[in-house]
Amino acid sequence: MSFENVKIFEEKIASYFGSKFAVAFDSCTHGLEASLYLKKVNKISVPKRTYVSIPFLAKKLKIELEWRDENWQDYYEIAPGIFDAAVLWRRNSYIPGSIMGLSFQFQKHLSLGRGGMLLCDDIETAKSLKKLSYDGREPDIPWREQDISCFGLHYYMTPETAALGIAKLPQAIQTEPRKWTVTDWPDLTEMSVWENI
Questions:
Q1: pTM tops 0.90, yes or no
Q2: Residue 15: helix, strand or coil by DSSP?
Q3: Tens digits of per-residue pLDDT, 67-103?
């Protein structure tokens, strides 16, 4: 199966959300991790009620974690210009100048089992994020033929996941998304894991 499916899926998602670019990842969390790494962020601020993988990024990247109380809906900012929009599903909802992480995890509106995408409007950011997702490689060139010159992560979306996204996208566009509220997540600060981190 061709990686052309990934490009097509990225273009369709960018068009729907109103961003210039979309970069596919194997999960929203991995996309946000790549964003934080690329922008050299040294601190994230996270609502107490969200998915647990987001605050874990602070430990993984060895950066500061700040908790906050926030009655957020659809998305929230974790660092300047970087948004966790995992539950967002709304046409033309991209925030200009930002990086926004979308999720296609099995409970999300466009349910693919796994996968995510980052929206952005800067071509250099999009290119850098693509290389980060893809082991530092340039897309469309066999890696053995490349002089890989930058750090990369093994976080790319598979063509099979992208093909499923392309197939399911029309139905997702036609149906009303679930409205998530902060009470859909527990207060993470009450979990014992943070005593050891």
A1: yes
A2: helix
A3: 999 999 999 999 999 999 999 999 999 999 999 999 9
Q: What is the residue range of 164's domain?
A: 4-196
Cβ atoms 169, 189 nearer than 8 A: no
Q: Residue 168: which CATH number?
A: 3.40.640.10
Max intra-chain CA distance, the chain: 50
Instruction: Identify the three-state secondary structure at position 177.
Output: coil
Positive or negative torsion for Cα 6, 103, 67, 120:
positive
Phi/psi zone of residue 141: left (φ > 0), alpha (ψ -120 to 50 degrees), beta?
A: beta
Cβ atoms 35, 99 nearer than 8 A: yes
CA 71, chain centre distance (Å): 21
Total domains present in the chain: 1
Cα 116 from chain centroid? 5
CA dist list (Å): 97 to 4, 36, 129: 27, 15, 15
E strands of 7-115, at which residues?
Answer: 21-25, 43-47, 64-68, 76-79, 82-84, 99-103
Give the count of beta carbons closer than 10 Å to the beta carbon of residue 182.
16
